[in-house]
């Protein structure tokens, strides 16, 4: 598993967590449960409302399609990492330091590991300039987390 995948697996549920797939499954399960509840509890008012049901279902489906296409799944990464930091005996500044972020996640934060992460993310700079590389790595990792649905936009 790549270093970036390891980072995702520590922050984002189900890692490359097909976040959209997880949400889709939850919606489908909720829809099935609702259908089962209606099917298992028929009553007179249910039969009386059947003439209205296709129109409201159609409108509801249109609303759901509009809402789902406008919503990007997000994971509150800041809260997750703040929670980890609160419970960590070291004072780690994960918001600006890739080294501290890796430590917080229990991952290898050595220079060699960071150079491997830089290669994985196609860093074009000089890996001997670790300060510049670390700053770039932190920004790139945050961008990648955001691409996976992580809510980190106030951090960069």
UniProtKB/TrEMBL annotation:
Residues 17-152 form the DUF3597 domain. InterPro entries: DUF3597. This is DUF3597 domain-containing protein. It comes from Frischella perrara. Residues 42-73 have a biased composition (Low complexity). Residues 31-73 are annotated as: Disordered.
């Amino acid at each position: 598993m790549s270093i970036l995948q390891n980072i995702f697996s520590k922050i984002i549920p189900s890692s490359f967590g097909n976040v959209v797939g997880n949400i889709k499954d939850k919606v489908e399960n909720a829809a099935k449960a609702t259908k089962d509840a209606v099917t298992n509890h028929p009553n007179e008012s249910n039969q009386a409302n059947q003439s209205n049901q296709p129109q409201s279902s159609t409108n509801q489906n249109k609303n759901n399609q509009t809402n789902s296409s406008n919503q990007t799944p997000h994971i509150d990464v800041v809260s997750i990492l703040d929670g980890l930091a609160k419970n960590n005996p070291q004072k780690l500044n994960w918001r600006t330091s890739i080294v501290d972020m890796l430590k917080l996640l229990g991952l290898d934060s050595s220079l060699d590991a960071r150079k491997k992460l830089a290669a994985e993310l196609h860093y074009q700079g000089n890996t001997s300039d670790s300060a510049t590389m670390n700053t770039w790595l932190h920004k790139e990792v945050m961008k990648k987390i955001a691409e996976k649905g992580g809510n980190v936009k106030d951090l960069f």
